[in-house]
Structure formats: structure tokens, C-alpha cells
Amino acid sequence: MPDIRLAGKEDAQRISALSRQTFIDSFAADNTAADMEIFLNSQFTISQLEAQVGQPLNHFFITWEQEEPLGYMRLIEHPDGHPDFRPGFPSFEISRFYAVKQAIGKGIGPLMMAYALDFGRSLGYPVCWLGVWEKNARALRFYSKFGFTQEGSHAFLLGTDWQTDLILFVELDKNC
Prior knowledge:
By secondary structure, the chain is of the alpha+beta class. The protein contains 5 helices and 7 strands; from the N terminus they run E-H-H-H-E-E-E-H-E-H-E-E. This is N-acetyltransferase domain-containing protein.
């Protein structure tokens, strides 16, 4: 049975490797190598992750099967709400949510999502939100199964390519 554990600074290198691997697996086919490299080198460096892991309101979790990492997630608390959607309404964000390619379709995603939503509830947040690339049909189908609905969109820069992320919300007290 997979185990989800809170990550610490000592996990920054592993999170960096997982981030790069899962992002490449998820998006390399639809983006240029140059844009991918710019993004990976600006977002998933060990030093950047060391600075983020353990910061107040930031929570990184790694999903393990025995000692093999299967995925990770970054959850961020927003006590003042999303700045553009529902400002002033406390919420938490699923900022990153990735499973390794070989774990997709094997129940890891639902396990991680249930954990994330329960974690948000345990902190007292009434709502959860996330951003997802408008062209990521598999992720959109997955999130809809958990009750997420679109409330807007925003621009997302991947390397030099401006893309559109859809902003999805779910009410935690109405979710299974």
C-alpha cells in the first residue's frame, strides 16, 4: 500500500528530480525542448526547492511504495484567498500534483487527491483550488471526478510560450 509522507528540506533533491521527470513526461510532447529547459531550470532547481520546502504555508508530500517515490504534491495555504478569484475567502491550493509515468492509472492519483483534500479540510479550509493547462484533457477529467469546476483562467509562461491555465475550485464540505 502506498504511503504519503510530508517532505523536509532533506527531500529537496528528490523533489527536484521528481518534478523534472514528471513534468517532462507530462508536457514534453506538447512543448519545445527549449521552452521545457527554460522552465525546468527556473522552477525545479534544488536550491529553489530547498527554499520552498518547509516554508510557512507550504507543504510538500511524497507518495512512496516501499522506498520508491511514485509522485509528489505541493499544497499551499492561502488564508486571504485567491487574489483574483474569491479574494478574502480562505483557501488552499494544489500547486503541484504529479505521479511518475509508471504509476499513472494504478490508483495513485485518487489516493493523493483524497489525501490533499483531507489535509485541506484538517486545516479548516472550506475550498481548494488549482491551475491546470487547458490542453491537459486527462488532468481535467481527473479533477472533475473530485468535483472541481472552472471559475476562470490565467496566463502561464512556459519558457517563452504563453499558455492558458484554467482555475478550478472545489468546495471541501461538498466533496466526498
